[in-house]
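Quick review question:
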């Protein structure tokens, strides 16, 4: 019988320890062992059948067993009740989860910096749709269907329509604005553009541009140069120099590609590291960085929107915001802007 008591004790304690922590399963175990028909109660009944000499010792063992099982059940019940209680209560003394203040994305900050310069020169901000028609994205800007320059712009067409596409530049807003407004005006157009480029360190199928357009009675090429020079110095620093290279865009005539003196080597194209001379890694030794395209508005564009090219002239320019930010902050990969990694974003 001693063996039996010991074994029941072990089983009972194991069962209590491994039972689910809820009141019902603990009550079931209490009934199983300590109830009126329970196993421990059954042992007390058997005590009467034993020779009287053995009863005190065995009786003591059964009593100890009963106490052990009772204590184990009480302890488990206490812990279970405490856990359930904790679920319903909030500890207001715990420290909160801190969320630092948010901030504008580096691309939005760069757009703001660019626009601020032009706003200070009297420009107004205008926006246009990202879903465009072929007419505004191409034809109105003197980019005819067969024109080779259309390839580079060829873009995402919407499935529902042959004529609707995601704009490949912000230039279509030039035509949209001119159709509805009379010169003189100076506008700046920030926005997203789309191109079917495979993504890599320097390409993204979506990026941002800022477009500029100034139209009036006697707007000159020198006005374009003056405005862009102020822009370059304000954004990249006073000592920045600027140059125009002849180029081609269907919507401007003449057209130019605009460079600034390299912000890393100050235009020298090289770095002295100790006694060694290294080619500048940012401009590749050229001393210049291309930042935008520009030109005098093509008279054909004026005609397309109903202006008289004999009466008005104007200039336009367009820049990639990511490129400006990459140069300004020394960023090595355009994808960093779109991956939403806070370790990157937090630095701006
Ligand atoms: N739309 C051109 C592009 O996406 C950029 C551009 C060049 C805009 C010259 C202009 C301009 O307004 O005059 O590559």
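Suggested answer, residue by residue:
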């Amino acid at each position: 019988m001693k063996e039996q008591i010991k074994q029941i004790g072990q089983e009972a304690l194991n069962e209590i320890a491994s039972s689910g922590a809820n009141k019902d399963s603990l009550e079931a175990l209490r009934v199983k062992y300590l109830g009126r028909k329970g196993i421990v109660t059954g042992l007390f009944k058997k005590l009467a059948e034993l020779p009287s000499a053995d009863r005190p010792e065995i009786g003591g063992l059964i009593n100890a067993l009963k106490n052990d099982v009772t204590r184990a059940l009480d302890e488990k019940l206490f812990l279970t009740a405490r856990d359930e209680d904790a679920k319903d209560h909030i500890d207001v003394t715990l420290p909160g989860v801190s969320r630092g203040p948010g901030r504008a994305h580096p691309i939005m900050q760069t757009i703001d910096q660019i626009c601020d310069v032009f706003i200070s020169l009297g420009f107004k901000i205008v926006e246009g749709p990202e879903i465009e028609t072929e007419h505004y994205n191409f034809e109105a800007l003197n980019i005819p269907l067969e024109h080779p320059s259309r390839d580079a712009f060829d873009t995402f067409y919407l499935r529902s329509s042959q004529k609707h596409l995601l704009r490949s530049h912000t230039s279509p807003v030039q035509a949209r604005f001119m159709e509805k407004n009379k010169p003189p005006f100076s506008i700046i157009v920030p926005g997203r553009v789309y191109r079917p480029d495979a993504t890599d360190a320097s390409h993204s199928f979506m990026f941002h541009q800022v477009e500029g357009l100034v139209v009036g009675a006697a707007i000159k090429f020198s006005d374009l140069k003056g405005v862009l020079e102020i822009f370059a110095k304000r954004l990249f620093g006073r000592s920045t120099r600027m140059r125009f290279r002849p180029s081609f865009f269907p919507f401007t005539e003449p057209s130019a590609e605009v460079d600034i003196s390299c912000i890393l080597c100050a235009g020298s194209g090289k770095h002295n590291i100790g006694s060694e001379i290294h080619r500048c890694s940012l401009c590749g030794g050229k001393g210049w960085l291309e930042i935008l395209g520009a030109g005098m508005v093509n008279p054909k564009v004026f005609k397309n929107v109903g202006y008289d090219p004999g009466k008005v002239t104007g200039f336009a320019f367009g820049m990639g915001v990511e490129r400006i930010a990459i140069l300004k902050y020394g960023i090595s990969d355009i994808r960093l802007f779109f991956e939403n990694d806070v370790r990157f974003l937090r630095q701006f």
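Why it works: The domain at 106-345 is CATH 3.30.930.10 (BirA Bifunctional Protein; domain 2). The mean pLDDT is 92.
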